[in-house]
Design a protein that fits this description.
The structure holds 2 protein chains of 2 kinds.
Chain A: H1 33-36, H2 49-63, H3 65-73, H4 85-90, H5 97-112, H6 114-118, H7 130-139, H8 148-152, H9 159-172, H10 178-189, H11 198-216, E1 231-234, H12 238-241, H13 245-259, E2 263-264, H14 282-299, E3 303-306, H15 310-324, E4 338-339, H16 340-349, E5 365-367, H17 371-376, H18 385-397, H19 428-434, H20 436-449, E6 453-456, H21 459-468, E7 479-481, H22 482-489
Parallel strand pairs in A: 1-2, 1-3, 3-4, 5-6, 6-7
Helix pairs in contact in A: 2-3, 2-9, 3-9, 5-9, 13-22, 14-15, 16-18, 18-22
Chain B: E1 3-5, E2 8-10, H1 26-35, H2 42-58, H3 64-75, H4 82-88, H5 93-100
Antiparallel strand pairs in B: 1-2
Classes of the chains: A mainly alpha, B mainly alpha.
Chain lengths: 509, 110
C-alpha cells in the first residue's frame, strides 16, 4: 500500500528512538512563477535571496514582537521534544519543536544578536546557506502549525508562528509551496479553494436539494446568493464537493430549515478556508477575508456563520474583525462571526431541534478536536466552549459517545497530520506518519468501547482521515462530519407522515 | 515528465496530470492507467466520459455526489455510490479518474 514504512500502533504510546534524517527527503512541490506572481511573490528564487531573506526576517521580528520573543527565549528545557505528532510518527529529531525552531533561530542569532554576530559557534548561530534554506523548506513543511507543543512550553513559544514566519520569508525570496499558493490564487480567480465556479456550485446545490427531498420528503433549501437572507453561511468548498463533508453540509441546511432561519451561501465567499494564514502572509489573509465582508454587505445579511472548518474558524474568531471589520452593519445580538456548532447547540437548548437518537445507533462515536478550534479559538461564551459545545451536540443526537484518552483531546489534542497547508499528495508519507498519534488514541477507544466512527468539524481533518485511516487498518468511511450526525437524527416537523405522499408546501421561505 | 501517446509527447505536471486539457485523447487515459497497472474497462470509461462532459459544461470536476448520482442513473442504483467508484479507481474517483480524463487535479481540502 505504501512505499514507506507505516508506523505500528502499539499497546500503549511510546516515545520513539531518534533516527536522524529520516524525513530529510520530504519536501513539497515548489510553486512555479505562474502561481507565485498573482500573490505578490517573486516567481522564482531571487539571485540575492540571502539578503532579501535576512531583511525579511528583520522586518518580521520588528512587526511581530511575539516572533522575536519566541526566537530569543527558548532555554532548551526539552518539554516540547516529544509533543509533536510529526516527531512521534517520523522519529526524525528535526521534527522536535525545539529543533524546528532552531532552524530559524540559528540564523536569527547569526544576523540579529550581538553574541551570534561575533561568536557564532558559542551560541549555535549559523550562516544562511543554501543547505539551511533547503532544510527550512523541508522541515517548515513538516509542521502543521497545530500549536500542541506550545501548550507544553513553559514560555509558551509558539512554533506555529515561527513556521508561518519561515514560510513568509521563503515566499519573499521566491521559494513558495505549490499546494498553498495555487489554492490562494484560485480563491482570487474563482472564489474558492476548489475552483468551483458559480454555475457548478448552483448545480451541485440543486442536486443536494433533490437528494434531501427524495430522502426526507421535505423541501429543504440550500440557497445561493439570496439577497436579504438573515444568515450568510461561509463554509469550506470541500463541503460542496467531498465526502463525508457534504453530509455535514446537508445537516446545516436541515438545522436552518427546522429552526425557520433564512440563510444563504454566497458564490463570492464560497470558501471559509484562508490559506493566507498557513503561509504567514497578512496581506493574502486579509485579501481572502475581505470577500466575506463584501459578500455580507452585498447580500445585506444580519449574521455571518462559519461551517465546519478548523483554521477558518481560527481566522474568523481571532482575526476577522481586524482583517475585514468593523462589522457594525450586522445584528449586534449575535456574535460576529458565529460557529455553526454554536448555532445548532443554541437551538437544541432552546428546544427548537428534536432528534431521534436511535437513527445514529449504528455508530459508536468519538470526537477529534481539531487543532485550530481547540488551541487557537473558542466557541460560545464560556472558556472551553470549543470542547463542550461539539460534544453536547453529539450527545444530543447520538446514544453512544466515548472520549479518547485525556492527553490526546481538548487542548492536548493531536493534529490529524494534514493541517497547516500539508494536505497534499506530495506529502503523503508525512501525512500518514503524522496521523499515527491520533490513530493510536483511536485504537484505544476502539478496543475499550467498540468505537466505530470518528467525528470531526474540519474539512482538512475529514479528508486527511479518509485517506490515512486505511493505512492503520481502519475503514476510510469511519470519519464522519458532526452535522452529518445532526442530519441523520433530526426530526423535520414538516416531514410527511409515513402514510401520505410528499407534501408540496413544506418550504420555509 | 511527458507521456507518449500515439507517437506524440504530452506535457504533464509533477503528479502526472496533463498540462493542456485540450491535448487529451482516449489513448492518453489508457497510457496513464497502464502506468499505474490499471486496465480500463467500459465501467471506467463511463466515469471518464461523464467527467469530461461535466467539465466541458462547468469547468470543474463534478462533486462526488453529482458523480455518484449520474453513474447511478446510467448504470443502476447499486453502482451510484462512492464504494463502487473506489473499486474502479482505488486512489479516489476525484483524483485518479480526473487524471485519466485529462482534467486538472481538484485542489483544496479534499
Amino acid at each position: 500500500m505504501a512505499d514507506f514504512e507505516v508506523p505500528v500502533l502499539r499497546e500503549y504510546p511510546i516515545i520513539p528512538k531518534l533516527k536522524e534524517g529520516t524525513m530529510a527527503h520530504s519536501s513539497p512541490f515548489v510553486a512555479k512563477p505562474i502561481i507565485q506572481e498573482p500573490l505578490g511573490f517573486p516567481g522564482e528564487l531571487l539571485d540575492n535571496w540571502k539578503e532579501v531573506a535576512i531583511e525579511k526576517m528583520g522586518e518580521l521580528c520588528g512587526k511581530y514582537r511575539s516572533l522575536q520573543v519566541y526566537l530569543d527565549s527558548c532555554v532548551k528545557c526539552g518539554a516540547c521534544t516529544d509533543k509533536c505528532h510529526y516527531y512521534l510518527g517520523t522519529t526524525d529529531p528535526k521534527n522536535m519543536p525545539v529543533a524546528r525552531q532552531d532552524l530559524l533561530r540559528k540564523v536569527y542569532r547569526r544576523y540579529f544578536t550581538f553574541a551570534g554576530k561575533y561568536f557564532p559557534k558559542l551560541v549555535g548561530a549559523a550562516d544562511l546557506t543554501e543547505e539551511v534554506l533547503d532544510d527550512w523548506y523541508s522541515y517548515f513543511h513538516q509542521c502543521s502549525q497545530c500549536r500542541r507543543c506550545s501548550v507544553f512550553c513553559p514560555y509558551g513559544i509558539d512554533t506555529a508562528e515561527i513556521s508561518m514566519a519561515a514560510r513568509e520569508i521563503m515566499d519573499a525570496v521566491g521559494k513558495g509551496q505549490k499546494y498553498c499558493n495555487e489554492i490562494i490564487g484560485k480563491v482570487y480567480k474563482i472564489g474558492n479553494n476548489l475552483g468551483l465556479p458559480e454555475p457548478a456550485l448552483r448545480d451541485t446545490l440543486e442536486g443536494i436539494e433533490e437528494d434531501v427531498e427524495d430522502d426526507t420528503g421535505v423541501k429543504v433549501r440550500y440557497p445561493l446568493d439570496v439577497k436579504g437572507a438573515d444568515v450568510l453561511l461561509v463554509t469550506p468548498s470541500a463541503d460542496f464537493f467531498a465526502e463525508p463533508h457534504v453530509d455535514g453540509l446537508i445537516g446545516y441546511g436541515k438545522v436552518f430549515h427546522e429552526a425557520g432561519i433564512s440563510w444563504t451561501f454566497s458564490s463570492k465567499a464560497s470558501e471559509a478556508a484562508n490559506f493566507g494564514m498557513f503561509i504567514g502572509s497578512y496581506e493574502n489573509m486579509r485579501r481572502v477575508s475581505m470577500r466575506i465582508r463584501e459578500a455580507a454587505l452585498e447580500l445585506g445579511v444580519k449574521r455571518i456563520v462559519f461551517g465546519e472548518c478548523g483554521h477558518a474558524w481560527r481566522v474568523a474568531y481571532s482575526f476577522l474583525n481586524t482583517l475585514a471589520g468593523p462589522f457594525d452593519f450586522l445584528d449586534p445580538r449575535y456574535p460576529v462571526p458565529q460557529h455553526i456548532c454554536e448555532v445548532t447547540n443554541g437551538l437544541i437548548k432552546e428546544g427548537k431541534l428534536k432528534f431521534d437518537k436511535s437513527l445514529n445507533d449504528d455508530m459508536k462515536l468519538t470526537f477529534h478536536d481539531s487543532c485550530n478550534v481547540a488551541r487557537a479559538s473558542r466557541m460560545g461564551d464560556k472558556p472551553g466552549g470549543q470542547f463542550v459545545i461539539p460534544r453536547e451536540i453529539i450527545k444530543s443526537c447520538c446514544n453512544y459517545f466515548y472520549d479518547m484518552p485525556a492527553d490526546t483531546i481538548h487542548e492536548s489534542t493531536y493534529c490529524c497530520g494534514g493541517g497547516g497547508g500539508l494536505l497534499t499528495d506530495d506529502l503523503m508519507e508525512l501525512r500518514v506518519k503524522g496521523a499515527m498519534p491520533r490513530m493510536q488514541a483511536l485504537k484505544t477507544v476502539v478496543e475499550e468501547h467498540g468505537v466505530t466512527n470518528l467525528v470531526a468539524i474540519c474539512a482538512i481533518c475529514k479528508s486527511q482521515f479518509a485517506k490515512t485511516l486505511p493505512y492503520y487498518g481502519f475503514d476510510m468511511n469511519s470519519i464522519v462530519s458532526l452535522h452529518q450526525l445532526v442530519s441523520n437524527a433530526i426530526i423535520l416537523s414538516d416531514a410527511p407522515k409515513d402514510d401520505d405522499e410528499n407534501d408540496d408546501d413544506g418550504d420555509d421561505a | 515528465m511527458p507521456i507518449e501517446v500515439n507517437g506524440k509527447m504530452l506535457e504533464t505536471d509533477e503528479e502526472g496530470y496533463l498540462a493542456d486539457l485540450n491535448q487529451w485523447e482516449p489513448e492518453a487515459a489508457t497510457v496513464m492507467a497502464a502506468a499505474e497497472d490499471q486496465e480500463l474497462t467500459d465501467a471506467h470509461w463511463e466515469v471518464i466520459n461523464f467527467l469530461r462532459e461535466y467539465y466541458e459544461e462547468y469547468q470543474i470536476a463534478p462533486a462526488v455526489r453529482v458523480l455518484t448520482k449520474a453513474i447511478g442513473k446510467k448504470l443502476g442504483k447499486d453502482k451510484g455510490n462512492s464504494k463502487y467508484l473506489y473499486e474502479l479507481f482505488p486512489y479516489g474517483p476525484a483524483k485518479q479518474a480526473c487524471k485519466y480524463a485529462g482534467l486538472p487535479k481538484p485542489t483544496g481540502c479534499v
